[in-house]
Amino acid sequence: MTNRYITCARFAGAQFKGRARRWGQSEDGAVTVDWVVLTATMTVIGGVIVSLTVDGTTDVGNQIGTVLTEKTVSE
Which domain of life is it from (predicted)? Predict the structure, then answer.
């Protein structure tokens, strides 16, 4: 390798370190990450609620359907 390539590699490494440091200190995307986490949490909570209530509502719906089919309509 020539000195030119070594100097270029060192310069690129220094640039990368500077950019990485600024990126780590930047908080521009922090709000986006917060919203993604909150949205995912609410989605999971909604799924859990649906999975816990679906059996009960299905049973009640079936019971209502049975009662309605057994009733006769008088004229």
Answer: Bacteria
73 is a domain residue: no
Q: Which domain holds residue 54?
A: 3-58
Greatest Cα pair distance, the chain, in angstroms, is 103
**How far is residue 65's CA from residue 49's CA, in Å, rounded to a whole number?**
24
Let me know if residue 8 belongs to a domain.
yes
* Residue at 66 is within a domain: no
pTM of the predicted structure, to 2 decimals? 0.48
Residues 12-49 have pLDDT tens digits of 777 777 777 776 676 667 778 889 999 999 999 999 99
Closest CA to 11 of 24, 3, 21: 3
Q: Which of 30, 34, 52, 53 is nearest to 42 (CA)?
A: 34
